[in-house]
Amino acid sequence: MMRELLESIARALVDYPDEVFVNEIQNEKSIILELKVAKDDMGKVIGKQGRIAKAIRTVVKAAAVKDNRRVVVDIIQ
């Protein structure tokens, strides 16, 4: 569920939605979501001073509260 949420948010922000990939790594109580976008779209996903990245992390963490899980969103290149 969190993976699909992150993917849909990222695809709405970028110019190249076909190049959005989310890798999900699960532990017992936490989930790590690695977001990878096109090189030209990195700035759009991170935003000025990281504001958009912070907002994305906040939304995904709020969705994870329902499942009593901890979510970490990493934006990788």
TrEMBL record:
Gene3D superfamilies for the chain: 3.30.300.20
Q: Which residues cross the membrane?
A: none
Its GO biological process annotations read: cell wall organization; peptidoglycan biosynthetic process; regulation of cell shape
Q: Which CDD domains match?
A: KH-II_YlqC-like
Keyword annotations from UniProtKB, A to Z: Cell shape, Cell wall biogenesis/degradation, Chaperone, Cytoplasm, RNA-binding
Which Gene Ontology molecular-function terms are recorded?
RNA binding
Main location group: cytoplasm
- Per the record, GO CC terms? cytoplasm
Compartments annotated for it: namely: Cytoplasm
The free-text function statement in the UniProt record for this protein reads:
A probable RNA chaperone. Forms a complex with KhpB which binds to cellular RNA and controls its expression. Plays a role in peptidoglycan (PG) homeostasis and cell length regulation.
> Quaternary structure per UniProt?
Forms a complex with KhpB.
The entry assigns this protein to a family as follows: Belongs to the KhpA RNA-binding protein family.
Q: What is this protein called?
A: RNA-binding protein KhpA
This protein's gene is called khpA
